[in-house]
User: What shape does this take?
Amino acid sequence: MRVTTKEPRRAQKGRVRRLLRSARLVAHVGWTGSRADRERREIVEQHEDALGSELRLGVKFDLAYQGPPDAQCGADFLRDSRTFDVVVLHWIFVGWDELECARARPAIANHFAFALSDQHSADAWRRRLRRSGAERIYVFGGICEVSGSWLLDIPGYRKRYASFGTIYERAPATSTTCG
Assistant: This one.
């Protein structure tokens, strides 16, 4: 949305406030800015557009960031307490102790910079993803990466597989009223 100078300043401020209130917040976890990350972001945006949901604001968690903690770069998602409308997991390394990773290590170890939170575990990821409150969680990952088969089930979410990975959708609240 473009704010023009032909509008009175008060109208411009009201328009910006409405835009921010309707903004959907997305967390890109494992974001490095690579071409593959941008392609995954496009897949998610297309999927959300098809659902009638427009993503406007993004917070990026680059797990390999080595500088001081920053809300836009390098924050640890597992330690973060914010809620998001959508969470996208971009090929997050699970650690060398996984059997498949131990076998694949020689082939991939020299190609990627791996970083792990000190909170990293499947249980910690499930708890944090649930606390995120996201309507949808998109998981891009395969062998040696956080994936739907590694996470298994997240309480309060339904899991379904897509051509690009796994989508967890928040399950509707069940009614407990008796008739």
